[in-house]
Design a protein that fits this description.
The chain is an alpha+beta fold. It has 9 helices and 9 strands. It has one domain (about 30-225): Hypothetical Protein Pfu-838710-001. The chain has helices at about 5-10, 15, 40-50, 120-125, 140-145, 195-210, 220-225, 235-240, 245-255; strands spanning about 30-40, 55-70, 80-85, 90-105, 105-115, 155-170, 170-180, 185-190, 215. A hairpin with a 2-residue loop joins strand 4 (about 90-105) and strand 5. This is Triphosphate tunel metalloenzyme 3.
């Protein structure tokens, strides 16, 4: 029995989720704007990592788990609920993302997020209906009120793992991702910015100056996960290099080798 379930055995789940002095705050929905550039393979990923190594801040092991209404109440409105666990459950963030648009390597998506107790998050992965009991969560309240989740509640869609290295470079916060799906690996550079075109120009200049191949990302990580296959470009490069290893093996190796810091907020 997991620690989370042992804890829940002795305390009712609602008592963990409610505070007599807490109040639901107003929704804080922001537009997340990010540059997203895709790298073809592990070799390119390693080259970028080496070039940026003097600017390295931290590295996270992330696990992303997604949820929808049992009757597709969220996805039918271009939304999804996500739990993200950092560094072997050091922290958990619940996010509501909606109305994604990605064009010319720039992604825009509505986002509302907040931290929750990781042990509660894990219990919700096992029993998704528990999410709707978290009365103190602004995000969960929005899921209930705005998306009309029915009596059947939420269902877990599964998810994927990601190793994210974070760098501070030329005033930009760069995130170098190595994403582990059951069906393959994906590599990407992300950069959240209020001036995405300027940020994109700087990153492209860096890659071009070192002869590193890249392309504009055309779909989100979640969309790749739901499709069950990698985007067609670069797929051959993945299979040539990783046909002897599973995504889980590679993720575990990364976790063992890297000194992981706490998650950035």
């Amino acid at each position: 029995m997991s620690n989370a379930l042992r804890f829940l055995k002795n305390l009712s789940f609602p008592s963990l989720c409610r505070s007599p002095h807490s109040a639901i705050s107003k929704p804080i929905t922001s537009m997340e704007v990010e540059v997203k550039l895709r790298l073809p393979n592990a070799v390119s990923h390693q080259r970028v990592s080496s070039i940026l190594s003097p600017y390295h801040l931290k590295t996270h092991a992330q696990e992303n788990i997604f949820f929808d209404g049992a009757n597709s109440e969220l996805s039918s409105k271009l939304a999804v609920l996500r739990l993200r666990f950092y560094d072997l459950d050091a922290q958990c963030i619940v996010s509501l993302k909606a109305k994604p648009v990605i064009s010319n390597g720039v992604s825009r998506i509505e986002e509302d997020e907040e931290p929750i107790d990781p042990s509660i998050g894990r219990a919700c992965v096992s029993d998704p209906w528990r999410l709707l009991l978290i009365d103190s969560s602004r995000v969960i309240q929005r899921v209930r009120d705005e998306y009309g989740i029915g009596e059947k509640g939420l269902v877990c869609l599964g998810g994927f793992r990601n190793v994210r290295a974070v760098y501070e470079w030329k005033g930009l916060k760069l995130e170098l991702d190595e994403t582990h799906y059951e069906f393959g690996m994906n590599y990407e550079i992300e950069c959240e910015s209020s001036d995405p075109e300027k940020a994109k120009d700087l990153i492209e200049e860096l890659l071009k100056s070192h002869g590193i191949e890249y392309s504009y990302s055309t779909v989100s990580k979640f969309a790749i996960f739901r499709s069950g296959k990698l985007p067609q470009r670069f797929v051959r490069a993945y299979h040539a290099r990783y046909n002897q290893k599973t995504a889980g093996d590679l993720w575990r190796t990364r976790c063992e080798k890297r000194d992981l810091d706490g998650p950035d907020m």
